Amino acid sequence: MSSMQWARHAALVLLGLAGMLGAALAQAQDMAGAKDHPAVKRFGGSSIVGYEMRNFDAVEFQTSTFKEFDLGVGLRRYVQPPLQLEGRLTRFWYEAPGDTRALELYRNYVNELTAGGFQTLYDSTKDPAAGKWTNFLASFSSGKKDFVKNVRSEYVMYAAEANSIRTGTFQKDHVTVRVVAIDWPKEDRIYKSRQGAYIAVDVLETKAMQQNMVVVSATEIGKSLTAQGKVAIYGIYFDTGKAEIKPESKPSLDQIAAFLKGEANVKLHVVGHTDSVGGFESNLALSRRRAEAVTAALVKSYGVAAGRLMGNGVASLAPVASNASEEGRAKNRRVELVLQ
After folding, report:
1. Minimal CB count within 10 Å: which of 19, 86, 263, 339?
2. 55 burial type by CB count under 10 A (0-12 exposed, 13-18 middle, 19+ buried)
3. 228/295 same-domain check
4. What pTM was estimated for this model as a whole?
């Protein structure tokens, strides 16, 4: 190999090492434990300076023009009510590199999301009524419940250049994304943050809350019935396609009976639910037989008056999760107690 070839080879090796080092340094800028969400890419060269993941939470997503902020009750008001969703929430603050500004950052995210099949539910840049302060108030989360600490500054929204704020809401299947892009002031002597553009990204994956306590206590049954008029019972088991209650269901039956004994005037609908596997008519009949088996067991084994219980089934008509996965189907197979 000639000296020129060796020099060229060495240069290529050095370039490769420099690239690897640059990537490592960029990754090192992220907060410890933070990682991108698979549904949303990051802007090139940016770093995660704020990160939080909540397994289950409730979030409001803007879908119309912001009207006012009612300081008396702490509510944001819109032309039409915001979209209220529950599920797994992942929140980010990204800091963009160099001379990137909020508009460029926002446009990149909008283009990427829409190209990926996300539907635009709201875009402040296309809303003629969205002024700089309406953007600020609509996007700013006032309560501690929505607070995500930013390693650059805890007060990133307060110090943002108000006329730079752009907000958007996007949705695809069970994933909803909110983006809020801002410019940081050129001279920030108060909050000591870096100059540049930031974008907040909230990703909510809609899902039903997982019932971790399979055996719901008599007390919890009463609380849920009072608050929601119903309670899901996942601790009553049947073999596939059958309506005979399995012996391991006894702890849940004990708690239902204890609740009914303590509330002598309460009457309940016992409602069977199935997943969508199999024919609808057969599932409808199966869900009803299972509900009737629960009522029969409570009457026969616990002495509950038959007139206090009414068994019925709805098959797969009221899912709490997608039937496309086994996890979702397991959540849909349940017995619910509903106040008459």
Report:
1. 19
2. exposed
3. yes
4. 0.53
